[in-house]
Design goal:
two-stranded antiparallel ribbon; five-stranded mixed β-barrel; 193 residues; alpha+beta; 2 domains
């Protein structure tokens, strides 16, 4: 009789699940889901890599890797930092209140590229493009999105340049992308062949 009761209690205990085990299982699934989502944020679109995969807050994510790419052509997508658009008097006319100042020189205009749409103004790196016929249409698109408080996603192809950016807490590597033409800036994802 005593043995039967003991077996019955063991069966009940075997069916009991420890809440800590259930919590660990849920936590594990949550971590897996977040990892998958974050991996998707750094995805490549066509031949364009995400700006978030090469930079963070306007500086190189991996200093050594970016230094190796210095001077090479890369293709990257990101978001226009509408608080950092620079150009000549013609650009100023188009940009209005979004004009941030004169361009780097008389033949070049500049905007900054953010890694994520929600990054703060200034957490971006410079993209330099020549003043050519494609510029004005791009600036108009940038202004329309900025006025609508909509992020402007762009796909750019250009030569990457790096530079040392010493800070009080350590050395960072800054990034600049120099384009051959305003046609190297696309507002739509390129067609995948």
């Amino acid at each position: 009789m005593r043995l039967r009761r003991r077996k019955k209690r063991l069966r009940v205990v075997a069916r009991y699940r420890d809440p800590r085990t259930e919590m660990n299982r849920c936590l594990g699934l949550t971590i897996l889901a977040v990892t998958v989502l974050l991996t998707g944020c750094n995805r490549q679109i066509g031949n364009y890599v995400a700006a978030s995969s090469i930079g963070k807050n306007g500086f190189a994510r991996d200093r050594a890797a970016m230094r190796k790419l210095d001077g090479q052509e890369i293709m990257v997508w990101g978001f226009v930092d509408s608080s950092n658009i620079y150009g000549d008097a013609g650009a100023r006319t188009i940009l209005g209140d979004w004009w941030s100042g004169d361009g780097p020189n008389a033949t070049t205009w500049r905007f900054n590229l953010k890694a994520e749409a929600g990054d703060k103004a200034g957490n971006s790196f410079s993209v330099l493009a020549p003043n050519d016929p494609g510029r004005d249409e791009l600036l108009k698109a940038f202004v329309a999105d900025a006025n609508a408080q909509k992020p402007t996603k762009v796909f750019v192809k250009g030569q990457l340049h790096t530079f040392g950016a010493p800070t009080n807490t350590g050395a960072l590597t800054g990034l600049t992308l120099e384009l051959q033409s305003s046609n190297d800036i696309l507002l739509e994802p390129p067609a995948v062949k």
